[in-house]
Write a structure and sequence with these properties.
Largest sheet of chain A: none
Number of helices of chain B: 13
Largest interface: A-B, 37 and 34 residues
Structural class of chain B: mainly alpha
Largest sheet of chain B: none
Distance between the termini of chain B: 10 Å
Strand content of chain A: under 5%
Shape of chain A: globular
Number of helices of chain A: 14
Strand content of chain B: under 5%
Radius of gyration of chain A: 18 Å
Distance between the termini of chain A: 10 Å
Oligomer: heterodimer
Amino acid sequence: MSQTLVAILPVFLVIALGNIFRRTGFLPMEFWAAVNRLTFNVLVPALLISGLSRADLAGTNIGPMLVAVTVPMLGLAGLLWVLRPAMPVSGPAFTSVYQSVIRPNAYIAFAVALSLYGQTGLSAVALALAPTVPLVNLFSTAVLARHGSVPAGGSSIIRQVARNPLVLASLFGIGLQLAGLRLPPIVDETVAIAGQAALPLALLSVGAGLRIKAALAAGRAVLGASALRLLLMPLLTAAVAYAIGLEGMPLFIAILFNGVPAATVSYVMAREMGGDAPLMAGIITVQTALSMLTLPVLLALLA
Amino acid sequence: MIDVALAILPIFAMIGLGYVIRERGFLGEDFWRPAERLTYFVLFPILIVETLAGAELAGLTVLPMAAATISAILIMTLVALAARKVLKLGGPGFTSLYQGVVRMNTYIGLATAAALWNAAGLTLAAIAVAIIVPTVNVLSVAALARFVPAGAPSTTQVAGRLARNSLILACLIGIALNLAGIGLPPVAAPTLDILGQAALPLGLMAVGAGLDFRVMREAAHPVFAATGLRLLAMPAIAALTCWAFDVQGLTAAVVILFSATPTATSAYILARQLGGDAGMMAGITTLQTAAALVTLPLVLTLAT
């Protein structure tokens, strides 16, 4: 427990610092939009390529880990879709709840995994991310198209999903790993240096995206979304993982990946595609705050 | 030579990345100023505190190292004054030449020391920063006050500028934590570790973003003089002062490394604020940074 806590607490302190920097105006709003562009398109892909090409993944149970990650994700996505008519919320509000349940904040997962398991942990999260990001994007897009307030152009979104830099970088890194190749000497080091800036900036930016007012204004939907995301999802993940005999680091990564709060990028999607953006901001904020407690407890108990 | 070049090239590749991102306008102009603020006031001080607080300081010959470094800076001050006569420079022009000769790019210094000599190099580099930053700041501000009388700051303003310098504060805090035997507390250490990792990549990219090859077209004699003095003469002088004060091994290599880095990008800000020749300063910074790609591996190969 204490070891996990020591790995998790600093991650949240950095997030809190990002929030303070934004609120005090030390780093203005326009800066954070650029930071997100830089981390998403350049720095995090660099981190993933360098991590995946250097990691020692022999002995990591990747197949079962992916099962433990995706089955609960698909299950909850389907459950929400089925239960939609019975839920007392508007269409746009539903899309925000839905996104928050299935879209994990990979940056937090990367930071915790890196701190506890080094490059191997980082790579295991990247392996979980590569197949789930397209899936999550596809589902979120479908739900936003059906229930959002803005009709979406399907083909442009599919193109966006196909070009997701995190997925492309993971695939490239996995390719290098499988082929037993490294990047050429100078490129390898440069990519590694660039990757060092990825998580600090991404975590600060997660904090800058938190909205305490939106969290206070949000209603019961937030609590439901948080319970599903932070409790039911990791519990289901543990159940599936135990059932298929997953243990050790892959078990930890699966629960971590499905126990982190909703990704801050959900807010951008909600805003652009007619979701309930203020509710999305509220859910992300509440989940991020609550996960500071739920994540270490669940990981200590289950993994 | 090849080993050294291989270790240094990624550092210049990061600078190049910052330059390309800035030129392409990928992040917009709203990114770089706050990014520099974040790096200069938060991330870089954290890296310094973290490095110095946990460093093994016993057995380091800090005093001779400081003597060798400061003497090299003072000798180069005399050389710059002589160059002023030869080049017949006006006051503002001289201050830019002078800043170009004595200031050092701490991002490149730290990144190179870490790449070549790992933790031991990083610790010595952080100590070098603690020696260099106050010295060159006092001298640069004094030069601006003496040669650009219109914008002269008072002594209290100079003292205030130093007291607010985040790098000097970070050095003091780091050394205090170290000497008091406190080090860094359990949760603080990994938190600072996460943040400090971003300091060098972001700092190097900001160095690149500050380069302006357009001003290079107007580059005149003072720009070339400042570059030659800085990148070639100063490391030679530093090697001499190290020998004179019996500074050897890795410590001497770090002193020579810093004396061979291009000038600090903050020189431009100071030139603009205190009435120096900002255009010339930008030219000097750009030419030195580009030329250091060749001279730095050369100097380090000779020095080690």
